[in-house]
Specification:
The structure holds 3 protein chains of 3 kinds. Chain A is α/β, with parallel strands linked by helices. Chain A folds into 2 domains: 36-151 and 314-380, Periplasmic binding protein-like II (D-Maltodextrin-Binding Protein, domain 2, 3-Layer(aba) Sandwich); 153-311 and 387-430, D-Maltodextrin-Binding Protein, domain 2 (3-Layer(aba) Sandwich). Helices cover 45% and strands 14% of the residues of chain A. Chain A is built from 20 helices and 15 strands. In chain A, strand 1, helix 2 (46-62) and strand 2 form a beta-alpha-beta unit. The relative contact order of chain A is 0.17. By secondary structure, chain B is an all-alpha fold. Chain B has a domain at 63-234: MetI-like fold, CATH 1.10.3720.10. Chain B is built from 13 helices and no strands. In chain B, helix 4 runs antiparallel to helix 7. The longest helix of chain B has 34 residues, at 237-270. Chain C is mainly α. Chain C has 2 domains: 1-45, no CATH class; 58-291, MetI-like (MetI-like fold). Chain C is built from 16 helices and 2 strands. A two-stranded antiparallel sheet of chain C has the order 1-2. In chain C, 43% of the residues are buried. Classes of the chains: A alpha/beta, B mainly alpha, C mainly alpha. Chains B and C meet through helix 1, helix 3, helix 4, helix 5 and helix 7 of B and helix 1, helix 2, helix 6, helix 7 and helix 8 of C.
C-alpha cells in the first residue's frame, strides 16, 4: 500500500485500517469454522413436512457447527426418480428419507454409505434399542444401510361419528373379514335418496401393497421364496381367494367408490370430508388427520382372516456415499433417532417410533390427540410381515398395481389379473439384486 | 344489419364465448370456498364465492418466490432471444440467395428435432457446465434464439426491407450493429413484438426444463409449482385452480394490455 | 468505406455473417451436439452412473420387442391422425369467420387466441377439472342436456378423445397465421367472384382454398410435429399415460426409459424411431402437396 503524503484525516483513517483488519482476523479465528451444511430430503404432504421441519429446526438451534437444510418432494412415487436424477447429476442430498421398499436399488448400486458402523460407535443409541423388524428391513447383504425412524403398519382409520349415527359399535381389537365387510356395507348409504351413494363405508388404494396383508391372512405367500423370490404367487388359491375378496369389496358390495368417483374426489379426501367411514392407511396420515375438526376419528386394527397378519411400513434415514462430511450428517441422523429426536417426531403424529423406549412412552401412546388407540400399531409389531427386499421391487409393485386396479374396478377377471401380474413381473425378478447374498 | 352480417356476428360471438368458456370455468371453480362441497349441478358461481384460495396457495407453497423465479427467467430469456434471433434473421437476410436456402433448410431441420431427444443429453451437458439446478439451465435455449421459428420470422421481416435501404445505411457509414438497431429492427417492430410475446409465453409456461434440470425448490418456477400443488392437494380443486389462475394472470394481462400500450406509443410517436 | 470500428479486414458480407454466430453456436451446443449424442447413445447401455457400454443394435431390438413401445407409437399416431386435420380446419374456418370487418372484431379475435396464451401446465390442470367425471362443468353440462356423460380421462376409451378435445382450444397460433394469410390474399379475386354470382361456399372452394393451401400445409406440418413431440407436459400432468396406457405416447415412453428406468440407450433408440416417423410424415405431406400442386417453393415457405 503506497500512501502519498496524506492530510490529517486520511492519516487517521490509514492508521485505523491495519488494526481493524487484524481485529477482523482475530474475530474470524475465534468464531471458528463456518457451519457444515447438510442437506436432507423427505417426502410427504404439508403436515408431514412440518413434522420434519420441527425436527430440523430443533437440531439446528442446538448445533452451531452443523446446519441441516430440508428439501421436500410431495409424491413418494416420484421421489425415486428425483433421487436417481440427483445421483446421476452427482449432487444427491446428503441424507434422504427412504422407504424399505425402495432403498434396495440404491444400496445395490452402491450409492449409500452403511450406517451400521456409525451406530456401533454411538454413545446415544445402539442397535438393540430399536425394534428388530425395522432394522432388519434396512439390512442389505449383512450390513445395516439406513437407520429406520418408524415401525408403522396398515390400520383402519374410522369416523367415530358416522359409526354412532348408524348405531354401530366402533371396531373392536379383533374382528374378522366378514365383520369388516358387513360394517362397510352398513355404512355405505344413499343419504338423500337420489340414487347415488353419498357415503361410502370404505376407502383404500387397490394396490399390491394394500393387498399383501390380506393374502398373508388367508394363509398364502406373496412370493415363492422370501429370501430370493422368482415370481409373485398371486395365482395360487390362497392369494387368489384374498384377491377375490379384496375386489369383491367394489365389484360385489360396492362399499368403495368406483373409478370415476375416486378420480373425481379421492377416498382420503372423502374421509377427511366426513363422507367415507373407514380408510386404510399407515401412520403417515395422522399429522394431516389431526387437522380434522368436524368429527371424531380413531384407529382400529386390520380384520383377521384365517390367521392374523400385519404389514410393515418403515422409512429410514439413508446417508449418501458422496456426502462430503459424513460425521456431520451422522450427527443429525443420530439426533433424529435418539430419544429426543424420535419424541419430537412422535409428538407430531407422523411416526410409530422405532425406538422401543419412545414407542412405549406417553409421547406416542397418550399424546392427548387422536388417535387414542395408538396401542393398535404396537400390537401389530409381533404379527407383521414385510415384502421382499430387492432392487426391482418398486417396478414389480408398479406393474402388479396396474392389474390389481383393473380387477378391482371390474375391467378384468381376478384370475386374469393374477396371471398378468405374475407374467409381467417375471422379468423384474430375473433382473433383481437381493438382500441375501 | 343484413341477415348475413347478423348471423356472422352471432357466430363470432358464439365462437368467442366457446373459447372463453374453459377460462371462465377455471376462474369460477377457484372461487369455491374451502370446505364447501363440490358442485353437483351446473352453476356460474359457487354459492359462497371467495378469494380465500388465493391466499392459501401462498401459505401452502412459497409461491411468491416461484413467481419471482418465473419473472427472472423471462426477464433474462426474452431480451437474449430477441437479440440472438433478430441478429440471425438479419444475417440470413443479407446473405446471397444460395446461402439463404441452406440456412433455411438447416433451421427447418433443427425445428424438426424432437425436444425429447435433447432432454437427457442436455441434462448431462448442464451437469458438466455447472448449470444444473440454476437459472441458466432454464434460459439456455435463449442463446440460440429459443426456436428457429423466430429466426425465420425475423428473416421474413428483414427480407421485405428493400436492399436499397440497407445500401443507403451502408453508405451513411453505419456498421452492421448500427444497421440492425437503427434501421432494420424498427422496421420489423411488429415481428419483434410478436416474438417477444411468444417467447414470454414459452418461458413462462415451460414445464419440462424445471422438471428435469432443477432439484431444489429455490429456483423452481410456476409450472412445476402447479404440479407440486396438484400432488399435495389432489382433490382440493379450488386450490389447484387458484394457482392455475395465478400462473395464467401474467401472460394474459400482458397479452391484453400490450396492444393498448403499443397503440399509445404509436400515437405519441406520431404526435 | 468501413467504419473503422470492426476489424477492417473483414469484408461487409463477412460482417453480416458474424450476426449469425450466436445462433449458429447456440444451435451447435444446444441442439446438434446433444442430438448427435442422443442418437449415438442408442448404441450403448448407459444409466448415467457408470460409463457407457457398447450394445450394438440391442437397444433397437429391446424397444421393438417391448409391447409398450409399439403401443406408444400407435397412440402417438392416433393423436395425430384425426385431431390435427380438425385443428387446422378449425383454425382456418374460424379465421375465415373473423376475416371481414365487423363490430367488436378485435375482441372476438382476442377471445379465440386467449387460450393459447395460457401456460400449458395451467391449461392442463384447468381441463383436469373441466373433465372431472362427477363434478366437472363439462359433464354437468352434458347431464343437464340429457346425455350420459363419459368418464373422460378415467375411461380408457374416452381418454384420447378427451385429450383431442382439449387440444382444440389451443388453435390460436393457426388462427393468427390463417388470418394473416387471408389478409395477404388479393381482395379483388374474391370481389370478382362475388360479382360473378358465386356463393360463399364456392368462393371458398375454388378461390380461397387454393391460394391458402400452402399456409395450411405449413400449419399441418407444424401441428403434426408439435402434437407428436410436445404433448408431453399435458399428458404427464393429466393421465401419466393412463388409464392403463390409453394415453401412453412416445414422449412418455422415452421419458420413462430415460428418467425412470435410467435406460438412456433404449430411450435414444426410441428417439431415432420417433425422428424417422416424423420425417416420414413430413415427406408424406410434401408428396401429397406435390400431387395437388400446392406450391412448396422457398417463396411460399417464407410466405
Amino acid at each position: 500500500m503506497i500512501l502519498h503524503k496524506p492530510d490529517r484525516p486520511e492519516l487517521l483513517r490509514a492508521r485505523l485500517i491495519l488494526p481493524f483488519f487484524l481485529f477482523l482476523l482475530v474475530l474470524a479465528a475465534c468464531a471458528g469454522p463456518a457451519p457444515t451444511e447438510v442437506s436432507f430430503m423427505v417426502f410427504g404432504d404439508p403436515a408431514e413436512y412440518n413434522a420434519y421441519k420441527e425436527l430440523v429446526d430443533t437440531f439446528n438451534a442446538a448445533h452451531a457447527d452443523v446446519q441441516v437444510t430440508l428439501t421436500h418432494v410431495p409424491s413418494a412415487s416420484e421421489y425415486r426418480t428425483r433421487l436417481v436424477t440427483e445421483f446421476a447429476a452427482g449432487s444427491p442430498p446428503d441424507i434422504s428419507l427412504m422407504n424399505y421398499r425402495r432403498f434396495a436399488s440404491f444400496a445395490a448400486n452402491d450409492m449409500l454409505e452403511p450406517i451400521g458402523p456409525f451406530l456401533a460407535q454411538s454413545d446415544l443409541i445402539g442397535l438393540e434399542d430399536f425394534y428388530p423388524a425395522a432394522t432388519e428391513a434396512f439390512t442389505w447383504q449383512g450390513a445395516l444401510m439406513c437407520l429406520p425412524q418408524n415401525i408403522s403398519s396398515l390400520v383402519v382409520y374410522y369416523n367415530a361419528d358416522l359409526f354412532a349415527a348408524a348405531g354401530l359399535p366402533e371396531p373392536p381389537d379383533k374382528w374378522t373379514w366378514d365383520d369388516f365387510r358387513q360394517t362397510a356395507v352398513a355404512l355405505t348409504r344413499d343419504l338423500d335418496g337420489d340414487g347415488t351413494i353419498d357415503q361410502y363405508g370404505l376407502g383404500m388404494e387397490p394396490s399390491l401393497f394394500r393387498l399383501a396383508p390380506f393374502v398373508w391372512q388367508n394363509g398364502g405367500p406373496l412370493v415363492d421364496d422370501d429370501a430370493r423370490p422368482t415370481r409373485l404367487t398371486l395365482t395360487r388359491p390362497p392369494a387368489l381367494e384374498a384377491l377375490q375378496w379384496f375386489t369383491d369389496l367394489h365389484n360385489v358390495y360396492g362399499v368403495v367408490p368406483g373409478r370415476e368417483a375416486e378420480a373425481s374426489q379421492d377416498s382420503e379426501s372423502r374421509f377427511m370430508a366426513g363422507t367415507t367411514a373407514m380408510y386404510l392407511n399407515s401412520r403417515r396420515g395422522v399429522p394431516t388427520y389431526r387437522e380434522i375438526d368436524s368429527f371424531r376419528w380413531d384407529v382400529a386394527p386390520l380384520p383377521n382372516g384365517r390367521t392374523s397378519a400385519g404389514i410393515l411400513h418403515s422409512d429410514a434415514f439413508c446417508l449418501s456415499r458422496t456426502t462430503a462430511d459424513k460425521e456431520a450428517a451422522w450427527q443429525f441422523i443420530e439426533f433424529a433417532n435418539s430419544v429426543a429426536g424420535q419424541t419430537i417426531l412422535a409428538a407430531t403424529g407422523r411416526t410409530v417410533p422405532s425406538l422401543m423406549a419412545v414407542a412405549e412412552s406417553d409421547a406416542f401412546l397418550n399424546p392427548g390427540q387422536p388417535p387414542s388407540r395408538a396401542q393398535v400399531y404396537l400390537d401389530n409389531a409381533p404379527i407383521m410381515r414385510r415384502v421382499p427386499i430387492m432392487s426391482t421391487w418398486q417396478e414389480i409393485e408398479g406393474v402388479a398395481d396396474e392389474e390389481i386396479e383393473r380387477a378391482f374396478y371390474g375391467d378384468i377377471a381376478v384370475a386374469d389379473a393374477a396371471r398378468l401380474a405374475t407374467q409381467r413381473t417375471e422379468e423384474y425378478f430375473l433382473r433383481a439384486d437381493f438382500n441375501a447374498p | 344489419m343484413s341477415f348475413k352480417a347478423g348471423s356472422r356476428a352471432l357466430l363470432r360471438l358464439l365462437a368467442a364465448l366457446l373459447f372463453l368458456l374453459p377460462l371462465l370455468w377455471m376462474a369460477s371453480a377457484s372461487l369455491n370456498a374451502p370446505g364447501d362441497p363440490l358442485p353437483t349441478s351446473l352453476r356460474l358461481l359457487p354459492p359462497h364465492p371467495t378469494l380465500a384460495n388465493y391466499g392459501r396457495i401462498f401459505r401452502l407453497l412459497p409461491l411468491g418466490r416461484y413467481t419471482l423465479n418465473s419473472l427472472l427467467v423471462v426477464a433474462l430469456a426474452v431480451p437474449i432471444t430477441l437479440v440472438v434471433s433478430s441478429w440471425a434473421g438479419l444475417g440470413m437476410a443479407r446473405l446471397p440467395k444460395p446461402a439463404q436456402r441452406r440456412w433455411i433448410t438447416l433451421s427447418l431441420a433443427v425445428l424438426m428435432v424432437p425436444g425429447i431427444a435433447l432432454w437427457s443429453t442436455r441434462f448431462l451437458l448442464y451437469r458438466e457446465l455447472g448449470w444444473y439446478d440454476t437459472v441458466w439451465a432454464l434460459i439456455a435455449p435463449a442463446w440460440m434464439g429459443t426456436s428457429p421459428f423466430y429466426v425465420l420470422m425475423f428473416y421474413r421481416a428483414f427480407r421485405r426491407i428493400p436492399a436499397a435501404i440497407y445500401d443507403a445505411a451502408h453508405l451513411d457509414g453505419a456498421g452492421v450493429l448500427q444497421t440492425w438497431w437503427l434501421v432494420a429492427l424498427p422496421m420489423a417492430r411488429m415481428t419483434a413484438v410478436a416474438v417477444a410475446l411468444l417467447t414470454f409465453v414459452f418461458y413462462w409456461g415451460d414445464f419440462t426444463s424445471p422438471l428435469l434440470y432443477l432439484r431444489s425448490g429455490e429456483h423452481a418456477t410456476l409450472p412445476v409449482a402447479l404440479q407440486t400443488l396438484q400432488q399435495l392437494s389432489r382433490s382440493d380443486w379450488a386450490l389447484v385452480l387458484a394457482a392455475a389462475v395465478w400462473t395464467t394472470l401474467v401472460p394474459v394481462a400482458l397479452f391484453l394490455l400490450l396492444p393498448l400500450l403499443f397503440n399509445r406509443r404509436q400515437k405519441r410517436s406520431v404526435s | 468505406m468501413s467504419n473503422g470500428r470492426l476489424h477492417p479486414r473483414l469484408s461487409p458480407s463477412a460482417r453480416w455473417r458474424l450476426l449469425l454466430l450466436p445462433y449458429a453456436l447456440g444451435v451447435i451446443v444446444l441442439v446438434i451436439v446433444p442430438a448427435a449424442f442422443s442418437f449415438a447413445l442408442a448404441f450403448f447401455h448407459y444409466d448415467a452412473l457408470s460409463p457407457p457400454v457398447w450394445a450394438g443394435t440391442l437397444n433397437f431390438v429391446l424397444a421393438y420387442t417391448d409391447e409398450l413401445f409399439l403401443l406408444s407409437i400407435r397412440h402417438s399416431l392416433a393423436l395425430i391422425l384425426i385431431p390435427v386435420p380438425l385443428r387446422v380446419a378449425g383454425a382456418f374456418l374460424l379465421a375465415r369467420l373473423m376475416q371481414r370487418n365487423g363490430r367488436f372484431l378485435n375482441w372476438f379475435r382476442t377471445a379465440v387466441y386467449l387460450p393459447s396464451v395460457v401456460p400449458g401446465a395451467a391449461f392442463a390442470l384447468a381441463w383436469l377439472w373441466i373433465l372431472n367425471p362427477l363434478y366437472g362443468p363439462l359433464n354437468l353440462l352434458l347431464s343437464a342436456l340429457g346425455f350420459a356423460p363419459p368418464a373422460w380421462l378415467v375411461d380408457p376409451d374416452w381418454a384420447r378423445p378427451a385429450l383431442a378435445l382439449m387440444a382444440l382450444w389451443q388453435i390460436g397460433e393457426g388462427f393468427i397465421v390463417s388470418l394473416a394469410a387471408l389478409y395477404d390474399m388479393p381482395a379483388e379475386l374474391e370481389d370478382a367472384a362475388r360479382i360473378d354470382g358465386a356463393g360463399s361456399w364456392a368462393t371458398l372452394r375454388s378461390i380461397v382454398l387454393p391460394l391458402i393451401a400452402p399456409i395450411l400445409l405449413l400449419l399441418t406440418f407444424r401441428d403434426v410435429i408439435f402434437t407428436f413431440q410436445e404433448s408431453f407436459t399435458q399428458i404427464y400432468l393429466l393421465t401419466q399415460g393412463g388409464p392403463y396406457y390409453a394415453t401412453y405416447t412416445m414422449p412418455l415412453f422415452i421419458y420413462e426409459q430415460g428418467f425412470d428406468l435410467q435406460a438412456f440407450g433404449v430411450a435414444s433408440a426410441a428417439m431415432w424411431v420417433m425422428y424417422a416417423i416424423t420425417g416420414l410424415i413430413v415427406v408424406a405431406l410434401v408428396v401429397i402437396a406435390r400431387q395437388w400442386n400446392i406450391g412448396t417453393t422457398e417463396e411460399t415457405f417464407v410466405l
